[in-house]
């Protein structure tokens, strides 16, 4: 198991210099990966798919650097650290377009990509992308199959319910790309296993995470397992805290549970990126 950090790609303070600084410090400290995610927009009245309540996004979500352009920039300014997304909303992109972008970036980075793909959840983003929400589920599985066809031997062709690729030559092919599914609901977790993808899951509590992993393994999932922590490692212990947050000592104790669940990688995504010293604290856990 190794560790990583989410990049400072959101909010008015995000900048190319700051993003590169965090990635390069993480690489020098020996961390395993840096991570970016996708957010198309911050609507005036967002809500989560399937809930009857309005859930406003944080103000930082008004500015979110595109994950693939960000990682392409870092592919040229780093040399060994893995470059990850958790997640790209696959359904917002035509499969052949996303497949070419991912394969190109994987080549440019020397095969360092760990790409987390999700289905998307915000109705306004589906509307802006021109994709029906009903494409979730079967459409996601077909999207992954179409991309894998693009990455296979030429001539490439694909014919499905939602996507068609005429017989063509499609290149480049990826060098070492690893696919993860960002999933939490049991059906999505089982789908990830059936598609032969790894699993990327946000930890809110240990019981829910354990059930997620159990569902994945029972469905035959055998890919890498990544835990995302929406929080940081602080200077002092916390009485009330999320898993894998609090002091370095508290987090070190929690990591034993992450290992028991079979985690391959754990990374911390700072909220608003108030994370001075976080790279060093994560590196300290790795050394300990």
TrEMBL record:
Keyword flag Isomerase: no
MF terms (GO), sorted A to Z: oxidoreductase activity
EC number: 1.-.-.-
Keyword tags: Flavoprotein, FMN, Monooxygenase, Oxidoreductase
Protein known as: TIGR03619 family F420-dependent LLM class oxidoreductase
Signal peptide: none
Domain (Luciferase-like): residue spans on this chain: 8-219
Main EC class the enzyme belongs to: oxidoreductase
The keyword Flavoprotein is assigned to this record: yes
Superkingdom of the organism of origin: Bacteria
């Amino acid at each position: 198991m190794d560790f990583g950090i989410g990049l400072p790609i959101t909010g008015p303070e995000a900048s190319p210099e700051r993003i590169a600084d965090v990635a390069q410090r993480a690489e020098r400290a020996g961390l395993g990966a840096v991570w970016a995610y996708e957010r198309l927009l911050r609507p005036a009245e967002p809500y989560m798919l399937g809930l009857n309540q309005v859930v406003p996004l944080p103000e930082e979500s008004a500015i979110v650097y595109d994950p693939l352009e960000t990682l392409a920039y870092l592919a040229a300014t780093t040399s060994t650290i893995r470059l990850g997304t958790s997640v790209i909303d696959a359904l917002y992109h035509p499969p052949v377009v996303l497949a070419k972008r991912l394969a190109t970036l994987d080549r440019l980075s020397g095969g360092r990509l760990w790409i987390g793909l999700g289905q998307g959840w915000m109705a306004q983003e589906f509307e802006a992308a021109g994709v029906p929400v009903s494409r979730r589920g079967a459409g996601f599985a077909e999207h992954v199959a179409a991309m894998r066809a693009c990455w296979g031997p030429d001539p490439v062709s694909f014919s499905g319910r939602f996507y068609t690729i005429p017989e063509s030559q499609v290149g480049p092919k990826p060098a070492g790309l690893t696919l993860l599914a960002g999933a939490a609901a049991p059906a999505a977790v089982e789908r990830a296993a059936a598609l032969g993808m790894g699993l990327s899951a946000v930890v809110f509590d240990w019981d829910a995470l354990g059930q997620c992993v159990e569902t994945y393994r029972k469905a035959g999932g055998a890919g890498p397992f990544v835990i995302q922590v929406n929080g940081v490692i602080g200077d002092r212990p916390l009485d009330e805290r999320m898993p894998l947050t609090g002091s370095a000592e508290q987090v070190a104790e929690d990591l034993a549970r992450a290992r028991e669940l079979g985690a391959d990688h754990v990374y911390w995504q700072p909220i608003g990126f108030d994370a001075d010293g976080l790279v060093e604290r994560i590196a300290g856990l790795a050394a300990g």
